[in-house]
Amino acid sequence: MIDPRVAPVQAAKIAVAVTFATNGIAFAGWLARAPAVRNDLGLSPAGLGLLLLCLSGAAVLAIPLAGPLVQRFGAARAVLTGSMSVVLGLIVLGTGTALGSVPIAGAGLVLLGAGNSLWDVAMNVEGATVERRVARTLMPRFHAAFSLGTVGGAGLSALAAYLEVSVTIQVCATALLAAAIMLFTVRRFLPAETIPAGSHPGGRVRDAWREPRTLLIGVIMLGFGFTEGAANDWLAISLVDGYHATETVGAIGFGFFVTAMTVGRLFGGSAIERWGRVAALRVTAISALFGLLLVVSGLGIPVVLIGALLWGAGASLGFPVGMSAAADDPLRAAIRVSVAGSIGYGAFLAGPPLIGLLAEHFGILRALFLVVVAIGLGLIGSGAARPLQAATNGIAPTGPPSDSDGSDKA
């Protein structure tokens, strides 16, 4: 007989994983077809970078608002609202692509970016709640579910490209699938955690912006977010433009990246529990660096695919570790996740136009050298990921003890 106290937590654990996976499907369902979107809209590399700025700009502007909204309305309502905005954004993007209208496509990306920020913060806060309830490092696995979703989305994109299915049909079908899943899944989320008498729930956003640890966690997320986002936005295009590969090969290369990222996140939790967050971040940063150098080496598509695997493994843990670290104290989880996420999403704001402009003048492969700077930022901030010693409401923060006993010290 299942313990009635355990069953809701297990149901929420599955629901959070499904939520991350659905977000990944929606995310990769159009990004792997970025070359087709670019061609249908008649954009140059710099023009595509500016179009992607609609997505990243909306995401960055919306994410500071996400924490207070999650705190006020709860993770379930916030996830549902954000996911429906993403669904609408995909439909508008598909419409704009079909009409060859850059403004309409841009409007769709604004809806997609803003909705995804709310969806992202809320599902990470819910994931941290489940993580605390089971007293295990689960955040990398939840992000692995996201990566599995992106693998599925990339696979469907590659198949759609091979069958010459239009981007419009593909993204609209993806939107309807995401809507159907999320309307059911959020019902399994946990109730909000009880706040002890006399505690201040969540604090103020401006206070979190003054916390050195929260800001450094944001730097970790900025560095690894740029490392991940550069591959998401430009890896497929680098194969098409830099190596003269077909669109199908570009989608396969992106699939290699997200597959490696998925494997890294599936096994990353065990590595973190054994060696600590900081050591895991440093090892993955080195893997990302080697992978990036192989991708830009110009040695051929087989070498690029190996590089995509190393790059994906290297990008796997930065964001989930950052989210988990920001949510160590459940009382301030939503606010701190939104503040750290605001810094982290700066990578998605600056990355697409910067790389696009550099690609316009120097070529896409040379432009990707900018990712080296991002990897350095991830290394600089890695020490801030050590778990808090105690939470203010009596719930022990998550994280392996090895991060606090000196084993991660250089």
From TrEMBL:
Protein's membrane topology: Multi-pass membrane protein
This protein's GO CC annotations: membrane
CDD domains documented for this protein: MFS_MosC_like (cd17393)
Record's subcellular location: Membrane
UniProt keyword annotation of Membrane present: yes
Chief place of localization: membrane
One Pfam entry name: MFS_1
InterPro entries: MFS, MFS_trans_sf, MFS_Transporter
Domain of life assignment: Bacteria
GO terms assigned for molecular function: transmembrane transporter activity
Keyword hit for Membrane: yes
PANTHER family per the UniProt record, alphabetical: BYPASS OF STOP CODON PROTEIN 6, INNER MEMBRANE PROTEIN YBJJ
Name used for this protein in its record: MFS transporter
Organism: Winogradskya consettensis
